[in-house]
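Request from the bench team (R.T.):
"We need a structural guess for the complex before ordering more pyridoxal-5'-phosphate. Sequence and SMILES attached. Just send the tokens back."

Command: build protein-pyridoxal-5'-phosphate structure.
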Amino acid sequence: MIPVCTPFLGKNEKKYLLDCVETNWISSSGKYIEKFEDKFSQYCHAKYGVATTSGTTALHLAFAAVGINKGDEVIMPTFNIASTAFAALYCGAKPVFVDSQPDTWNIDPQRIERKITKKTKAIVPVHMYGHPCDMTAIMRIARKHKLIVIEDAAEAHGAKYRGKRVGGIGDIGCFSFYGNKIITCGEGGMVVTSNKRISDRCQNLKNLSFLEEKRFWHKEIGFNYRMTNIQAALGLAQFEKIDQYIKMRRRNALFYNSLLKDIRGIILPVERPDVKNIYWMYSVLVGRNFGMSRDEFMKRLKGMGIESRIFFIPMHQQPVLKKMKIVSKEKFPIAEDIARRGIYLPSGSGLKKKEIEYVCDCIRKIRRKS
Ligand SMILES: Cc1ncc(COP(=O)(O)O)c(C=O)c1O
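Reply to R.T.: structure attached below.
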């Protein structure tokens, strides 16, 4: 089976991990944590990095650090993983959903302003599958209404919008280092920001909000979202090759595009002229003229030894949010359509040319038989 994604590890991962074990620095202090925070935040053109246990906890930490609270509203795309909405809910805030752009699958800035109320505190653009959001439009709306921008860049390490790396464009950026991300710590996340106050608050909140001047004394509720030195060692070794991985992801995506472009009913991912898409996952839509449903297509791919995955199911359709009355009967036609028709194909950085050729040959055969 050709998997959708596997981690791509090298020699330094082993070396740095061994170093943690041999020196006994295996918990949440140690040289790799600070190094990883510094290097990765610099890469995002942000001054500070705060390493966490996951992308989800990075989002929660960022929301908490800027004071998102009960009664606040946070604007975000409905087409997304649950982490972003859950992070708002952990703070007692309400996620407010917006439909997507049909080509990039990202939050549509033109639909944001009508969702702003007196309770709105922040906008969270999510750079979906590695394609940056339209940040100029989003930042303009945010500044006009005095809203905080927290980028969910969990899938978009190194992606660029008008020459700037995502995560460092808004007030805060949040990343994931889960096993299938461009770089991985196994599990892990990071908040990046150029705002010292926010960074200090994140560092304190992630460590149970210990009061510096009085040990084991707490004036507020904190979390344990501390990344370990072991995770950071892996992350740092991975970071050393981030540009190489991005190159590989992009090369694979462009090769896929060249082989799939003539197949009727396969709608390819886009790269708008002012961005650099890092193609975290090589994602396509199954058109109505493909000759079979998306699910049937996936079944046939599986029969030929090719793993694929469906797209996220929009948040406004989630039973838990319906039960909580977070969502109304509002329709989000673009998100629903994308979610119904989207799949991602094998996409790992280490994917071989031959494997991509095989996948595309199979798709051609499936299409011919439909
Ligand atoms: C857009 C987005 N945000 C947040 C997350 C959460 O990251 P994690 O799985 O590290 O908690 C993910 C994970 O894939 C994601 O895709």
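Two things stood out. The first strand starts at residue 48 and ends at 52. Residues 54-56, 80-81, 83-84, 126, 152, 154-155, 176, 178, 189 surround pyridoxal-5'-phosphate (CB under 6 Å).
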